[in-house]
Specification:
alpha+beta; single chain; binds flavin-adenine dinucleotide; 19 strands; binds NADP nicotinamide-adenine-dinucleotide phosphate
Amino acid sequence: MVLKIESSYSLLNFNTLGIDAVAEFFAQAASIDEVKECLAFAVANQLLVKILGGGSNVVMASYVNGLVLNYSNAALQVVNETATDVTIKVGAGYNWHEFVLFCLAKGWFGLENLSFIPGTVGAAPVQNIGAYGVEVKDFISSVHGVRLPDGDSFMMAGESCGFAYRESCFKQELDGKVLITDVEFTLSKKPCVQVAYSPLDKMARERGLPTPSELSGWVVQVRKSKLPDPNELPNAGSFFKNPVISDEQFQELIKRFPKMPNYPQESGVKLPAGWLIDNLGMKGHSFGLVQIHALQALVLINNGGSSEDVLAAASMIKESVLKTYGVLLEQEPRLFC
Ligand code: FAD
Ligand code: NAP
C-alpha cells in the first residue's frame, strides 16, 4: 500500500473518549521506511510529529497541529529461546490483548493479569501498563525505536527505561522525542499465576488455582463486569492514578475515614482514588456532557464533550478530593495536542 499523508483528518475513531478531533496531518506508517518518509515530510513542512497508538490513554484536543503518526507494524519474531523462557520482538502496532492471547496460546507466560487492556504494544512501555499487581516492566527486556525528527534508531534496555508506577522515561524526558517501533519481552515457559489482588484471590479460593489461560479469562470477566466498553460508553480507563501519601498523612486520614481501603508501599500508603471519589457521593454524577461512571468512580464517560469539557470535569473532581482529604490526584491520560 502506498503511504498516504492526509490533511484535516478526523481522529474521532482514534481516541476512546470519542472526542471529535481533527489532525492537521495524519499518516499511518507500516514500516521504518514509511516512518522516515513521514519524518522527511514533517521536516520539510516544519511540522511537529505526534505519535498516537490506539488513543485509549489520551484526552484529544479538538485540533492537533502537526503530523499525527500512527505506526501499524505488528510483526512478531522470536529472538531467543531456551528450555525455560523465550524472548520475542513485537511490532508497536500489535493490539495488546491479542498479543497476550497469542502468548498464552504459545505457552509463554507472565502477561495474564494484563489481559484486556486496550491499546497497542508500542504504548505499553510508555506508562508501564499495570493491573492486578502485575506491571509490564517485569517482562520488557528492551525497547526499540527511532528518535524524532531525525529518524536515528535507538535501543534501550528495560532497566534503563525509568519504569515506575504508570511511569517511564517515555512519559518524562523522552516525551514527544521518540517513536517506539518494537518492544522485546522475555516470558517464562513455566506458569506462575499471580492472584493476590482481591477479585482474583476470591475466585482462586472458590475455584482453586487457575491455569494461565483461565486466569486471563477471569481477568477479562472481572474487567467486563465493572469497566465500561469504550465503544458503548466512551472513556479512557482510570482517569487518575492512585495516590501514594505519607504515613503521617495516612494516620490523620484513617482517623477521619476508618473504612478507607489502603495499601502500604515502600514509599508511603497507596489509596484507591476511586474510593476517595466514591466516598464523596460522586459516583454517577454528571458535569454536563461528562459523567463519573456509575460502577467505577475512577472512570469518566464522555457523552460527546470536548477535551475542555473532560478536563473541566476532572478539575472539579480533583478540587473536591483535595478539599476533603488534602490529597492531590494526578491525571493519568494526558492532553494530546
Ligand atoms: P495512546 O493512548 O495512543 O497513547 C498513549 C501515550 O503513549 C501517548 O502519549 C502517545 O504519544 C504514546 N505512544 C503511543 N504509542 C507510542 C509509540 N509507538 N511510540 C511512542 N509513544 C507512543 N492502563 C493500564 O495501565 N492498566 C489498565 O488496566 C488499563 N485499563 C484500561 C481500561 C480501559 C477501558 C481503557 C480505555 C484504558 C485502560 N488503560 C489501562 C489505559 C490504556 O489502555 C493504556 O495506557 C494503553 O497502553 C494505551 O495504549 P494506546 O495504544 O491506546 O496508547
Ligand atoms: P479495584 O479492584 O477496585 O481496586 C482499586 C485500586 O486499589 C486498584 O487500582 C489497585 O491499585 C488497588 N489495589 C487493590 N488491591 C490491591 C492490593 N492487594 N495491593 C495493592 N493495591 C491494591 O481496581 P479496579 O479499578 O477494578 O482495577 C483493577 C486493576 O486494573 C487495577 O490494578 C487497576 O490499576 C487496573 N486498571 C487500570 C486502569 C487504567 O486505566 N490505568 C483501568 C482499569 C483498571 P493499582 O492501580 O495500583 O493496581
